[in-house]
């Protein structure tokens, strides 16, 4: 058995840590590249959303490298993400690739367990008692690493706009993340986190700069994965913008575990409440949160908002229509970037440069 | 009964299934129902958001009506089935229209969510009645009568499609004419009801089909069990009711009973895009079907000529197969 999983930001570090600690053989799909996307595009059609194509490409590449078991997070209605597995399975079957598929249900319900029953029965035969015994420890290790990655990335977002040598933060962040990835025991991991944080903080910085504050909102895959959004976060940072986002891997895990109960004051709840001025119902996925976040960020004095969505994304299309009005009503510049498989990296750079220039005018006029 | 005012219903989206119901409910409550005209020219489409054509047409039709009516009726259709849901765009549709009309017209956007149980539809319509100033008794009576006339309407639906011009399908005062000559070919048309019956979307493909000597049947013709049979064994439940209907009826018709199947999709429709891939792949994996299948993707740039060519070619294939089989 060789397990594989899709890419999503630094999620592979989390999955790898679990598999490694529990002693389950795994294959990390090659880093998402032009080839990955080409494979995904070739085997789907133009109006299917970009994350579908990226994930499909990851799976094809991993299966060709010898993986045989796909682990994929499931999701529920109303967005298309919940049916990715249904369609991807039949595509892979049509391509003549052999695989086994394990969907992690978004919520543990009896129906979800029942649907997974057949697949897990097969898999359980191949797992040793040691694997199962170590699995909770693996989960703990993975979670620790995930939180470490997020802390490092958040730190990088803070220092990137004030770096003196352009690109230095990204280099250091990569190094720090790889230390976290390589750590095998909790003690080494703790050291790696401290070392990584120090590495970023010790970088040469120009503290006299006052960075613009911009929030990135939108569909979670496009917000979280730099390959899908062509490094919007890094590009903005290097243009002198302090970027904030509230969509993290841990946010969505906690949300699906319903851990946010105590969190009635959580940011997501606040955003959702704020969106009620424009939306009378929960449209699904991130739509309402996107709208609400744009409103609240304007109130909090942010300079602008960048809204990311895949082409033809169902909930975010509604959000983007509403955001054009929100931008006017609340006087906050909103840049919507619709992402698809086209080679748009250069165009995004130009758009972001123009956006930041506009923020500069706005600041000077104020 | 005296006329209480004018109530506008945009000729878009689920108008193409539920208009008979809505019409009779509001007429019975004493409201004059106004329906928007067609758009006909693509220059007239209002591009408020970058959505699929049916959604853009909703905004366009609402704009046509906004000055002529007291209320616009755009229900928030969350679910029209006891288990399955609608496309997420329907949930935000009234909000989009409200922003596009700059909040200048009153919109009746009562939520309809049938997952909540058997009487939730009645409750939604009671609330709608309340907003229009009707008493519970009046609303209840109107609802029952609307239900009756709707089921009456549905019984004659297949005949109506085949015997009336597409524009007149939802003209309530026009009766279905008697049967004419029997068409030699039977073709199933699959897709969201607005893709099938909105001539602004499909350039009146149905008229063209009929003129080529084909009889049209739709998924309304099938029972829920027949549709479910093809989709219930999947590894994951398709949770959109329209998606289930499309996949279920498509596989049903492809297994026999008709001479050909036409699937109409809208460009940028999320549900259609995903399920279209599923349908194609599943057919291939299962070894294909002997019944010809034509998939047409429609948007505002679709021309009548292009559709004619494809439909004529399809007809040739269907006829050829039929003569070979005899």
Describe this structure in words.
The complex is a heterodimer of chains A (366) and B (326). Chain A is built from 15 helices and seven strands. Chain A folds into three domains: 3-127, 3-Layer(aba) Sandwich (Rossmann fold), CATH 3.40.50; 143-207; 210-366, Rossmann fold. The longest helix of chain A is centred in the middle third of the chain and has 31 residues, at 129-159. Chain A is of the alpha/beta class and 366 residues long. Helices cover 56% and strands 10% of the residues of chain A. In chain A, the strands form two sheets. A four-stranded parallel β-sheet of chain A has the order 5-4-6-7, sandwiched between helices. In chain A, strands 1-2-3 form a three-stranded parallel β-sheet. Chain B is an alpha/beta fold and 326 residues long. Chain B has two domains: 5-155, Rossmann fold; 171-325, Rossmann fold. In chain B, 47% of the residues lie in helices and 14% in strands. Chain B is built from 13 helices and ten strands. Chain B has a four-stranded parallel β-sheet with strand order 2-1-3-5, with helices on one face. A four-stranded parallel β-sheet of chain B has the order 8-7-9-10, sandwiched between helices. In chain B, strand 1 (5-9), helix 1 and strand 2 form a beta-alpha-beta unit. In chain B, helix 1 (15-28) crosses helix 5 and helix 4 packs across helix 5 (136-155). The longest helix of chain B is centred in the last third of the chain and has 22 residues, at 304-325. Classes of the chains: A alpha/beta (366), B alpha/beta (326).
